[in-house]
Write a structure and sequence with these properties.
This protein is mainly alpha-helical. The chain has one domain. Helix content is 78%, strand content 0%. It contains 8 helices and no strands.
Length: 251
């Protein structure tokens, strides 16, 4: 296995742990700064999904074969949407997400939270792994950087609801480690899928891009617009898009 795959997987895992450590240390991050940083990361991931995943998928096929990439995008959206619908969320415990998901009253609260975060982490890891299976190393590094930055504020956010529901410190540490390992596992799974066959790679790139677009639109942007700092997070998102385009140009 390529060293770059191991480095990217380790980088994503460490960035997730870093965010959790910062959250445990400071406990409360002002919504304004969290929304600005998360908006910036959403912009980077948005540009990465389009420029580093979906467009290379289109470039890898010709003529009417573009349907493969379109089908991949649709399948990625449907897959994450399916997981999102059937997996309860605990964001409402921290006042972040008012959305009520099925089963929230019957499953262990801590388990619910782990399942909710896994919705983000595993597909993000898969997206990175699939990109690593492509031929453009710059694209895969750009995606890794965007997701790694996004892991930091998300890692901070996971700590507060766990504390609210009464989770002990060591349990929070264990859960943070498990979440990081889920993302690492996603990287290896995506890399394996992307290397099964070159014929499947365009569809896999589209699927990874679609999954990222769903997470950005359904989770990241609504969260940055729910605390009264919509303008600041919007400016940050635009800055994130431009920054990712610059990074992709030079890596």
């Amino acid at each position: 296995m390529d060293t770059i795959v191991l480095l990217c997987a380790g980088g994503l895992g460490l960035s997730s742990l870093l965010g959790s450590a910062v959250g445990l240390l400071f406990r409360r991050i002002p919504h304004k700064w969290n929304d600005i940083f998360l908006g910036f990361c959403a912009g980077m991931m948005l540009a990465a999904a389009l420029v580093c995943l979906i467009l290379p998928g289109f470039e890898a096929v010709g003529g009417y074969d573009v349907w493969q990439v379109v089908a991949g995008v649709v399948s990625g959206v449907v897959l994450v949407g399916f997981l999102d619908f059937f997996t309860p969320h605990l964001h409402n415990f921290s006042g972040i997400d008012p959305e009520a998901h099925r089963g929230s009253s019957t499953v262990n609260k801590v388990l619910l939270f782990v399942m909710a975060i896994a919705i983000h982490k595993f597909p993000e890891g898969i997206a990175t792994g699939i990109a690593l299976g492509g031929t453009n190393t710059g694209n895969s590094l750009a995606i890794t950087l965007a997701i790694a930055l996004q892991n930091i504020p998300e890692g901070m956010v996971v700590v507060t609801p766990l504390m609210v529901v009464g989770a002990k410190f060591m349990r929070v540490v264990f859960i943070a480690l498990a979440i990081a390992l889920l993302e690492i596992a996603g990287v290896f799974a995506g890399y394996f899928l992307g290397n099964i066959s070159e014929l499947l790679l365009p569809a896999m790139l589209g699927m990874a891009g679609g999954a990222m677009l769903y997470v950005i639109s359904d989770e990241m942007i609504p969260e940055t617009h729910s605390h009264g700092f919509q303008k600041e997070s919007t400016y940050a998102l635009v800055a994130g898009v431009v920054m990712m385009l610059i990074i992709q140009k030079f890596v």
